[in-house]
Design brief:
Layout: H1 2-28, H2 32-50, H3 54-80, H4 87-114, H5 118-148, H6 152-170, H7 190-198, H8 204-227, H9 231-256, H10 258-274, H11 282-310, H12 315-347, H13 349-384
Helix pairs in contact: 1-2, 1-3, 1-4, 1-5, 1-6, 2-4, 3-4, 3-6, 3-12, 4-5, 4-12, 5-9, 5-11, 8-10, 8-11, 8-12, 8-13, 9-10, 9-11, 10-11, 10-13, 11-12, 12-13
């Protein structure tokens, strides 16, 4: 577990540092605001493209080498960045880092889950998520501060240094490709792969809830700074409560199950999202974003555990669940960041944040209805037999 936490801190601290520093560096290099946006889009596109191939990669390279490779892809471009000034060069380096990040995020949650049985998996994922949150709290403000001082060389050196922690953490994992168990999608058999993806169908609801929750995350963290003067304090409250939530909710998931935790977590997240409309009421906004972070952290842990339960303990199945969950996370964040702008322009914060909350609540209702129908069918099948 120590190796996973060291790698998680290093990878996400460097990622958040670069994510907050690179837009200003792109503008300084002459790329302009559109070029800065293109770098972030390229980074996330490369992340999404590589994720479906990670189970195959893990089967070929094993845990240590896969995670070490992701650290190298995250860190080495940072050493080249001081010599890069053109948009094509910056875009190419962003794509390389995106490939590394795509492998890294799937490896982190998958390898951590593989080391723990289902009864303890919620707490393990909770600790992992808390470390990720701490890395974001530290990395993002540091990147902004260094960019404002135009200390880009130092920012890139720190990002490369944090990537070294990913390499160090990789040696904390066993050498084996995966724990012993039934053959899974890592075997490379197309039929087995197809069966692995089919096994995620029962968790379509939770994965849709995950997408909706990260859509809210994208809306809150992208547009709150544009609508509220107390946004820095509000977002810090959200990040802090996310860390605390991830630490505490794992125990609840292990004891009561992911679905029982998911329902109140989504309701709290929806309430906190809607509070973003109180852009001129600092106290209400701070309370709302604190609730948002608490609920959001719980949703992340609950949906990930539910997705992994859908495929059982097959190593390949856990890998596919990790891929699906990460795609839902990244895709939802992108949807919120892109789709929230037009709604904000049309109706302002009083329309954007409550509408986003309503969408999240609607996806929860759909998930509950789907789960109820599935349980009814299963009961009917048992009676017939």
């Amino acid at each position: 577990m120590a190796g996973a936490l060291i790698a998680a801190f290093g990878g996400f601290a460097g990622f958040n540092l670069m994510l907050s520093a690179m837009p200003a560096y792109a503008v300084r290099s002459g790329a302009g605001p559109s070029g800065a946006g293109a770098l972030t889009a390229t980074l996330m596109a490369a992340t999404l493209v590589v994720q479906p191939f990670t189970p195959w990669l893990f089967a070929r390279l094993g845990r240590r080498y896969s995670l070490a490779m992701s650290g190298a892809l995250l860190g080495l471009p940072c050493l080249v960045l001081p010599a890069a000034s053109t948009l094509p060069a910056l875009t190419g380096l962003a794509a390389v880092r995106g490939l590394g990040f795509g492998v890294f995020v799937v490896a982190g949650v998958t390898f951590t889950a593989e080391l723990f049985p289902q009864g303890n998996r919620g707490r393990a994922i909770g600790w992992y998520g808390a470390v990720v949150g701490v890395a974001g709290v530290l990395g993002a403000p540091l990147g902004i501060a260094l960019a404002r001082q135009e200390a880009y060389a130092l920012a890139f050196a720190l990002a490369a240094g944090t990537a070294v922690l990913v390499l160090v953490g990789s040696f904390g994992f066993p050498r084996a490709v995966a724990p012993s168990g039934p053959a899974g999608p890592r075997s490379g058999n197309p039929r087995t792969l197809h069966g692995g993806w089919r096994s995620l169908r029962p968790m379509t609801g939770p994965l849709m809830v995950e997408t909706a929750s990260t859509t809210a995350y994208g809306v809150v963290f992208t547009f709150l700074p544009l609508t509220a003067s107390a946004a820095p304090e509000a977002l810090l409250a959200a990040q802090a409560s996310t860390v605390l939530s991830r630490l505490g909710v794992g125990w609840l998931i292990d004891r009561y199950g992911g679905r029982r935790v998911l329902v109140p977590a989504v309701l709290v997240t929806s309430l906190g999202t809607a509070a973003g409309a109180a852009s001129h009421q600092a106290a209400l906004l701070l309370a709302g974003t604190f609730l948002f972070g608490a609920g959001f952290g719980a949703v992340q842990s609950a949906t990930l555990v539910l997705a992994m339960q859908a495929v059982g303990d097959r190593p390949g199945g856990l890998g596919l669940a990790g891929v699906a969950w990460n795609v839902a996370f990244d895709g939802g964040t992108g949807i919120g960041s892109l789709g929230g702008g037009p709604l904000l322009s049309l109706g302002g914060p009083s329309a954007l944040f409550p509408a986003t909350a309503a969408v999240l609540a609607a996806f929860l209702l759909h998930d509950l209805r789907t789960a109820r129908l599935r349980d009814s069918k299963n009961c009917g099948f048992e009676r017939d037999n």
